[in-house]
């Protein structure tokens, strides 16, 4: 299990995948501590070379998240365990809050559009309105995408 | 010697999980297999389905589940039929989801 605070190269990620499941690696991401908004508008700010996220083909310029801007640099990610639940426990033991943790799978050999899969049993959070293994809130999805892209150097 | 995808789980971690957690994790792999089947990504489908069978086999081998063997062996058969056979049991993404959702929900109650 590895805590990724700084970048990991795509090749290093591929090597980890080769030693593990062969096609993907499990990850748990903490996309900052701001609660999810209920609307589906994707609003992100470009910051420190982290790319914009397109929303329905449109590039948006600025994010307002609650009462302040999101610092996407605060996003952290744990990878390389055989269970998302073990990665979740690791982050909880290190001070993260469960409501902000989301499980994903990363397929480094796939095109970027298919590289991140939002599918984990830890994502089932009925009390937060997430009633599937996916991450249903598009805002959180796109924030996770930004963080993962920022942490993988390819 | 068995060549496990889930090497550490096979060494013992799997047998620390609750039955609900075991089933929910099998469901995650089945869900992935369904996803890649729908996208016609055969290699990824094959890997996910193999992992689902592996976790089903580990669950079957867990002595705590001896009274659940009929359910588990049927589950294994339906997974094999759906992803490696002719789907004679008529599995669908919807009924996979409805079957595993309750286990996922129960696994997260704590």
Summarize the SSE layout with pairings.
The complex is a heterodimer of chains A (154) and B (110).
Chain A: E1 2-4, E2 8-9, H1 10-19, E3 25-30, E4 54-55, E5 58-59, E6 76-79, H2 84-93, E7 102-106, H3 112-115, E8 116-117, H4 138-151, E9 152-153
Parallel strand pairs in A: 2-9
Antiparallel strand pairs in A: 1-6, 3-6, 3-7, 4-5, 7-8
Chain B: H1 7-10, H2 19-38, H3 42-61, H4 69-84, H5 93-107
Helix pairs in contact in B: 2-3, 2-5, 3-4
Kindly summarize this structure in a few lines.
The complex is a heterodimer of chains A (154) and B (110). Chain A is α+β, with helices and mostly antiparallel strands.
How much beta of chain A, percentage-wise? 15-25%
Largest β-sheet summary of chain A:
5 strands, antiparallel
**Helicity of chain B, in percent?**
55-70%
Stretches of chain B where pLDDT is under 50 for at least 5 consecutive residues are: none
Report on the structure:
The complex is a heterodimer of chains A (154) and B (110). Chain A has 154 residues and is α+β, with helices and mostly antiparallel strands. Chain A is built from 4 helices and 9 strands, in the order ββαββββαβαβαβ. In chain A, strands 1-6-3-7-8 form a 5-stranded antiparallel beta sheet, sandwiched between helices. A two-stranded parallel ribbon of chain A has the order 2-9. A two-stranded antiparallel ribbon of chain A has the order 4-5. The longest helix of chain A is centred in the C-terminal third of the chain and has 14 residues, at 138-151. The model of chain A is unreliable at 35-73 (pLDDT under 50). Chain B has 110 residues and is an all-alpha fold. Helix content of chain B is 68%, strand content 0%. Chain B has 5 helices and no strands. Chain B is globular and about 35 Å long. Chain B starts with 6 loop residues before the first helix and ends with a helix. Chain A binds chain B through residues 20-24, 82-83, 85-86, 105, 107, 114, 117, 119-122, 124-126, 132-133, and chain B through 5-9, 13, 21, 24-25, 27-28, 31-32, 35, 39, 43-44, 47, 51, 101, 104-105, 107-108.
